[in-house]
Amino acid sequence: MKRISILGSTGSIGTQTLDVIRTHSDEFCAIGLSCGHNVDLFRNQLLEFKPLFAACADEADCRELAKEFPNIHFEYGMEGLCNCASLADADIVVNSLLGMMGIRPTFAAIKAGKDIAFANKETLVAGGKLLTSAVKEAKIKLLPVDSEHSAIFQSLQGHQDAQISKILLTASGGPFRGYTKQQIESVTKEQALKHPNWNMGAKITIDSATMMNKGLEIIEAAHLFEVDPDNIEVYVHPESVLHSAVEFTDGAIIGQMGTPDMRVPIAYALSYPSRLSNVAKPVNLFELKALHFEKPDPSVFKCLALAQQAIKSGHPYQIVMNAANEEAVAAFLKDKIRFVQIADVIEDTLMAKNWGDIKELGDIFETEKEARDLAKGYISKCE
After folding, report:
1. Would strands 253-257 and 242-248 be described as parallel, antiparallel, or unpaired?
2. Residue pair 269/10 in contact by the 8 Å Cβ criterion
3. What confidence score (pLDDT) does residue 135 get?
4. What is the mean pLDDT of the chain?
5. pLDDT for residue 15
6. Which candidate, 156, 119, 145, places its Cα nearest to that of 255?
7. What is the pLDDT of residues 82-98, one digit of tens each?
8. Burial class (CB within 10 angstroms; exposed 0-12, middle 13-18, buried 19+) of 326
9. For position 201, what pLDDT does the model report?
10. Exposure of 182 by Cβ count < 10 A (0-12 exposed, 13-18 middle, 19+ buried)?
């Protein structure tokens, strides 16, 4: 039985990971769980899965739950997350944390020699080569959980030594596919949160609506698969059936298709190199009839263009872009800025100065803090 520790068990990826564990309880058990502030859901998870270790964001929640579950060891804060990521008995760590907060626990898991099922794209964007070099040195597996990167990973099985021509990274187009620049000016938060195909958390859903998620995923794919970003092409694919593909130098294209269900890439990461049964309903090709592919319009989805700019500018600009985006999305969700101002905040932060080199982990946090402070200043001017 494979023992699993989940960082962010009450979020979208975390709850679906527990769905997989629940359905395949003969294969997996959850020995470590962590939560942010959804204590009621976390309490139910602790009752059902009875982990050995649990971590909470707040000390007060930690102390309250520790009284209710005396057989579980509780910790809180960043130290609790890092210890959850490095449990001695864990075989694999699922990192489904949101944003930059996933960096320290990820490095803790690497240092402890744990394989990582990875759904925290911001950490890879910010960590860059520091993270991928640490993974290689530790000789662990970094198994992608994002549907697109899982599809690329699956498409490369048996072809690792084949020469890649390019990666075809698919995108649903989000709720504003086909919108003009004029139409995008007046969209609302409620509209932005209505994704046509996927059930995700609020931050990821907004990133999909701005297409910043594709910018982050280009950077992530470049690091994971050691591909030049210029050889990663984004295809808007509204059916969300082809989850991504790889084109090889002989002209062959190999991709992974399936229903838009995150349990499929989660299950593959947990069971790799095997596959589990009864994870999701297969696609019925007779009902599908057709697949469509379109080029994204960077003049409408400015965040995608900004991400591509940050990629070419280098590692520090990717950290700045990610930090500014997190601040801008949070402000949008709190009705402090309009949808189109998300891109404005990111652009202003990127252009604020010449951002210095990243040589060690501390440089990432210093750059991120400065970028967040600048982004908050630009946000305050928008209010």
Report:
1. antiparallel
2. no
3. 96
4. 94
5. 96
6. 156
7. 999 999 999 999 999 98
8. buried
9. 77
10. exposed
Partners of 34 in the β-ladder: 55
**What span, in angstroms and rounded, lies between the C-alpha atoms of 327 and 340?**
14
How far, in whole angstroms, is CA 56 from its chain's centroid?
A: 21
What single-letter amino acid sits at 243? H
What is the sign of the dihedral through the CA atoms of 332, 335, 338 and 344?
A: negative
Amino acid identity at 187 = V
Residue pLDDT, tens place only, 125-164? 999 889 999 999 999 999 999 999 999 999 999 887 778 9
Taking the whole predicted model, whether its pTM rises above 0.85 is answered as yes
Q: Has residue 199 got a pLDDT over 90?
A: no
Tell which residue, 354, 330, 307, 301, has the closest CA to residue 125: 307
Burial bucket for residue 197 (CB in 10 Å: 0-12, 13-18, 19+): middle
Peptide bond into 70 cis (omega under 30): no
Pairwise CA distance, residues 322 & 306, whole Å: 11
Residue-wise pLDDT for 11-59, tens only, equals 999 999 999 999 999 999 999 999 999 999 999 999 999 999 999 999 9
How distant, in Å, are the alpha carbons of 220, 232, 349 from that of 245?
Answer: 15, 10, 33
Whole-angstrom Cα distance, residue 310 to residue 305? 9
Provide the 8-state DSSP code for 165: E
Helical axes 103-111 vs 121-138, angle rounded to 10°: 20
- Tell me the longest C-alpha to C-alpha distance in the chain: 62
Which spans in the chain are helix H? 12-23, 39-49, 59-68, 77-85, 103-111, 121-138, 147-155, 181-184, 189-192, 202-210, 212-225, 263-271, 285-288, 302-313, 315-333, 341-350, 361-382
CB of 240 within 8 A of CB of 197?
yes
Q: Given a cut of 80, is residue 7 above it in pLDDT? A: yes
The pLDDT, as a whole number, for residue 198 is 65
Closest CA relative to residue 273, chosen from 153, 163, 373:
153
Indicate the residue type of 17. Answer: T
The pLDDT of residue 121 is 86
- 3-state class of 92 per DSSP? strand
Tokens of 349: 């932060």
CA angle 69, 71, 75 (to 5 degrees): 70
